[in-house]
Amino acid sequence: MQLKEVLEETKLTKKAIRHYEDCDLLESSRKSNGYKNYSEENVQQLKSIKKLRKLGFSIEEIKKFFESESKKQEVVIRKMNENEKILTQHYQKKELLSALNDGKVIEEIYPEELEVIEEKPYMYLQNIYKVFGWINLISFVMMFLYFIVLREHGIQRIGILVILQSVVIVISVELQKRRSKLKKQGVHVLERKPREMVFQYLANLISYGVSGAIINEGLFFARMHLKDGDYFTVSGNILMGFMFLGLSVGMVFLSFLEDDLDISTIL
Q1: pTM reported for the whole predicted model
Q2: What is the Cα–Cα distance from 25 to 50, expressed in whole angstroms?
Q3: Looking at residues 127-152, what average pLDDT do you find?
Q4: How many CA atoms are closer than 13 Å to the CA of 67, on its beta-carbon side?
Q5: Domain check: are 152 and 182 in the same one?
Q6: Does 184 map to a domain?
Q7: For residue 129, which of 41, 190, 42, 60 has the smallest C-alpha distance?
């Protein structure tokens, strides 16, 4: 393969390819006419080098990456640690910017607050919304199995569940006020604080409990009125049960979405 074809395939410049060759990252052959010949392996190597450069790897790090599996793991782990420090620094800056946005004056920010605290790294969960969604789905299934299959049908203590749900929702709203304020200002916050997730989950969990208890009680009255031949009341109880079941299913679905429902915007 000629250099012109390699340039088109890799979208690299001639200068970049020459540089990688000079750094011993690429070994090409020459034809009898003196022109360089590049193999398919050379093209794939250049594409890999391009990706690693975009990930911030230096030439020396790329050499180690291709040297051996142990060297590859070593350089990747080092790069991950470097990125963790960067994430920590950006997280701390974000917290300070949020404080300024909330009214804190710049004079109250001390110089040491701008330094990276390596002992307190930025923590995150990969695919947090997928994890949160699956936890909600499992909790929903277990809660409905308990109230509809395992628990005896009868009059339930729905009032206590509603009070608990109201308390949790109030706390959730307070925790989400900053997020709502930033969203109104045009700032889309991707990060979720652990306490926000915990209270949102508790609000969802109690909602599943409320719906399950209402359906349980509805089945009890539906059976009772069915014996009396009051089919209108029976139909009403069944429709109410489906309505609350639909609401819970909707909450489970929303828990999988990244731009999830902000409780404070609907109260």
Answers
A1: 0.54
A2: 12
A3: 89
A4: 15
A5: yes
A6: yes
A7: 190
Spell out the alpha helix ranges (H) of the chain: 3-10, 14-22, 40-54, 59-67, 69-101, 128-144, 158-184, 194-228, 231-255
Please tell me the distance from the alpha carbon of residue 22 to that of residue 26, in angstroms, as a whole number. 8
The pair of structure tokens assigned to 199 is 């209270």
**Which pLDDT does position 144 carry in this prediction?**
92
d(Cα 92, Cα 111) in Å, to the nearest integer? Answer: 12
Provide the domain limits for residue 56: 3-67
Q: Report the mean per-residue pLDDT for the chain.
A: 81
**Residues shown for the chain:** 267
CB atoms within 10 A of CB 130: 13
List the beta bridge partners of residue 37. Answer: 29
Instruction: Answer yes or no: do 61 and 77 share one domain.
Output: no
Nearest CA-CA partner of 20 in 31, 11, 9, 28: 28
Residues 152 and 260 in one domain: yes
For the segment 141-161, the average pLDDT, to the nearest whole number, is 89
For residue 153, the 8-state DSSP code is S
Q: Both 167 and 239 in a single domain? A: yes
b or e along 35-68 (b: 16 or more beta carbons within 10 Å of the residue's beta carbon)?
A: ebebeeebbebbeebeebbeeebeeebbebbeee
> Is 158 found in the same domain as 73?
no
Same domain, 191 and 170: yes
CATH number at residue 61: 1.10.1660.10
